[in-house]
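Components:
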Amino acid sequence: MSARQLLQLDHDFVMKGGRLNRPALAYETWGTLNARRDNCVLLFTGLSPSAHAASHPLDPSAGWWEDMIGADKPIDTQRYFVVCINSLGSCFGSTGPASINPSTGKVYRLDFPVLTVEDIANSAIPILAHLDVEQVHTVVGASMGGMTALSFALMHPERCQRLVSISSGSRSQPYAIALRSLQREIIRTDPLWNQGNYDLAQHGPVNGMRLARKLGMISYRSAEEWQIRFGRERSSDTPDTDNLFGINFEVESYLQNHAERFIGAFDANCYLYLSRAMDLFDAADHGGSLAASFTHLSLRSALVIGVSSDSLFPLQQQHELAAAMKPHVEDTQMLALDSIQGHDSFLVDMDQFRPAIAGFF
Amino acid sequence: MSARQLLQLDHDFVMKGGRLNRPALAYETWGTLNARRDNCVLLFTGLSPSAHAASHPLDPSAGWWEDMIGADKPIDTQRYFVVCINSLGSCFGSTGPASINPSTGKVYRLDFPVLTVEDIANSAIPILAHLDVEQVHTVVGASMGGMTALSFALMHPERCQRLVSISSGSRSQPYAIALRSLQREIIRTDPLWNQGNYDLAQHGPVNGMRLARKLGMISYRSAEEWQIRFGRERSSDTPDTDNLFGINFEVESYLQNHAERFIGAFDANCYLYLSRAMDLFDAADHGGSLAASFTHLSLRSALVIGVSSDSLFPLQQQHELAAAMKPHVEDTQMLALDSIQGHDSFLVDMDQFRPAIAGFF
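Structure:
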């Protein structure tokens, strides 16, 4: 069962670096659009999730933000009409490098145009038009989704009243670029990547994807959390005693189990495109400087949330974002949480994030 | 020209997990042993450096701690007789997995016994005996070398008067284990590793080594340093415009250039053994708990130095080490530096490290 809705465009979609012939755009919705059509919450995702942010009558499986969206939850679907969009370039319904190009009848692979965060933000426009939503109540995003939400607010100020940016920033810093660049190189140098021309059913560079996912997990969590959670505990999985360098510590099992679940669930080429899009994003490009870009904003309020243990989007970046926004959005709030789960805190530290989000809505 | 000295043992060397048939031990020395033979400073290295810590009349090339060792430098070779040891298991003279096993006439490769930090510490004993040094003035080490120095002080309390531990700890934490485990997996899953049976002259898994080194560099530095140093500067190297995912940002060039220099300079199997040794080390193994282990110590003084931006050995670990040492070493000093260069600060932030080390000596 799927609650996924597909909007099949009957015209070209113009990207920053090319155009797509009649792409599909996938999304899910919860709640009901009110008569004034002013209660839509638009949610952009991080790099890898699908549009299934929460369970739905048509798909009761838990979504990636299950605790946050629903009746009597922080984003209350009795009040709000929530729309979550599967990012353009991803592989969960929206057209991406793993989709067939109708112009050629072949899978795009590396013929897909360079993807930018702005393209993902713009892909919301046809969906909102289809849903007959002129202006969204709030655009929300975490991690890459926060960049996309900011990008949406910069490019479509008339369509956006409020912004919530979570564990994100106005641009990628070199440390995060280095981590993602290395993840991409790990995938690209797996011989099974084959310049992007792998058998999609076989998932191609599975080893590269496993290693890249492990590096992702390391960058998404924190040393402090793992010290408390794992310490030097040895793995309870059957140890691979024949292998001098095999799994020994519990933290190694944890990474292995997480990475295995990712294999086959995400297309490698899509991952490469989305990862690069994050590196390329710089809100300053919308005006020559951050200050000049933010003159475009026309928001009633903004909430910027960051986490002290986030090494991918350090708290300092959220302070910078909020400070740059303040002159143009009078009601800008900055919220620094002391979660220890690093960048991923917004997915797991619900005791801190629920009240933070509920407070805004 | 080389200043390296080789001690060829004529007997077996007993390791925690096996024995080596007549290994060689490489070291370099600076300064002169005094008549009382009480001015020896014993230096253990991090994972990858050789024993060439400083220039020498026989080898004027700069060493890896050039600013620290020499006449009128913090470790003044006019006063001290400095001995730096190439770690057992490494590939710069001391016997390791890339050496020939005299028992078989073949390269050890994965037949080399499991390596521990304690084995590296014990390899100093024959060298000190050869140099006729009964007791060292100070044992010093940074990173893995700090673990080795601590291990030496725990196992040979009568041979050691003072200890300096830099950016190290009493054990590896799970975050650091995860990073090293991933580096090893990257190397081991390079098809050219071939279960350790690569052509040594061809350097085997060069791609795996390049990627592992890049991950090392990311873990050795800090986000703050790179933000100041690189920002979002584009690479000045000829951009690889044909490659959608090639080098674009300066931070990517920096990693590439650093990693290329590592290829061919370090043997992959040696790297795997030394990396695993760091994970396995836990000073608590010497007594059942850290407190019980440290009752073995018989030091006159100890200096523990850490750096606020170190993510591999967070400052908290140095505080723990110093606190655990204090009941047994009355003159224990803890020094927290606010260098921004992360774990590598002891190699690069000389303005802070020179006075710190000079103050001790």
